[in-house]
Amino acid sequence: MRAAALGGSGVRVSALGFGAAAIAGLYEDVGEDEAAATVEAAWDAGIRYFDTAPHYGLGLSERRLGAALRTRPRDGLVLSTKVGRVLEPHDGGGDDRANGFAVPATHRRRWDFSADGVRRSLEDSLSRLGLDRVDLVLLHDPDEHGEQAFREAYPALEELRSQGAVRAIGAGMNQSRMLTRFLTDTDVDAVLCAGRYTLLEQGALESLLPAASAAAGKSVIVGGVFNSGLLADPAPGATYDYAAAPSDLLDRAVRMRAATEAHGLPLRAAALRFPFGHPAVASVLVGARSAAQVVDAVTRFRGPAPGAVWDDLRAQGLLPGGVPVAVPVLDGSVA
Length: 335
Description:
This protein is an alpha/beta fold. The protein is 34% helix and 18% strand. It contains ten helices and 14 strands. The longest helix is centred in the middle third of the chain and has 17 residues. The relative contact order is 0.13.
C-alpha cells in the first residue's frame, strides 16, 4: 500500500490507517481473540499506520493494539496516540457505555491539557502499549480547553519532538475551525480531522485543507469517512456523529448509494476514496471490529472506481461542483 509523508516530519503513513477504537468495545463488546485477529488482518492487508488513544475503552485499545503489534518490526509501522484525557483508577464498578464503550468502568477520564498532563499521559500510554515509543502524538478533542491546549499542551509536545521522544505532533478533533488554527498558529506536522471531510459533508474544505496546502510541511489525516456509520450502510437506524441519523441526511446517503451502485461501486468504496482528491490528505483512518471488516475496507479501497461516478453525484446535486475528487489510476488505488 502506498505511503505519504506527514508534512516534513519524515513519518510516512500508509494510505489507509487502522483506527483502533472499535477493537476496544466501541458500542459493543469485542473479544480478545477477535481484536487480535482484526489487527493481524490489517497488517496482512498492507496497513502500516495504526491510531489509538487512552479514551478508547479506558486504555483497552492501547493494550490490545500494543500486544498485537509487539512482534512486528517497530521501524516498519507508524503508531499514533493522543493526550488530553488522563485515566485515573476507579473502583466503583459499572461500565463505560455512557461514553460509548462496552467495557468495565475501571478508570475515570480527567481532562488535562497541562504540560505535566501531556507528559504523564504519554508515559501511561507507552506503559499500556508495552512499546518504547510512538511516532505521532495528537492533542485529543481540546474543544473546551483550547487556550490551555495552545498555551501549555502544544509547547509540551513541541519539546518532546525536539528531544526526539516523538517524531511528529498534532491535534485530532471532530471540528475543523480549531484544527485550522493549529495549522496556522503552530508548528504541528499533521492534524486528524474526523467526520468533517467526507462524501456527505465537506466543511474542512472551507479553511482547514487550504491552510494545510498553504503551509509548507503540514498534512491532514481524515477519520470518520463513514460519518460514524451512515455512509457504510444507509438504512433506518444508521448513526451519524454517534447518534441516530436525521431523516434528511439518511435520504441523501440513500441517494448517494443508488448513484454509486449504478456504476458498480459500493457507497463505502466511494467514501473511502473521496478524501484523496485533495492533495493535503495523507491518510484515511478506517475503524474495524473484525478481520472481515478490514478485508472489506481494503478490497473496496483497492478496487476500480469509474470516474463517471463523481460526475453523476455532482449532476444529482449530491456533491458540490468545486469539491476535488479522487482520480483512479491503473493499479486500482488513487492518485
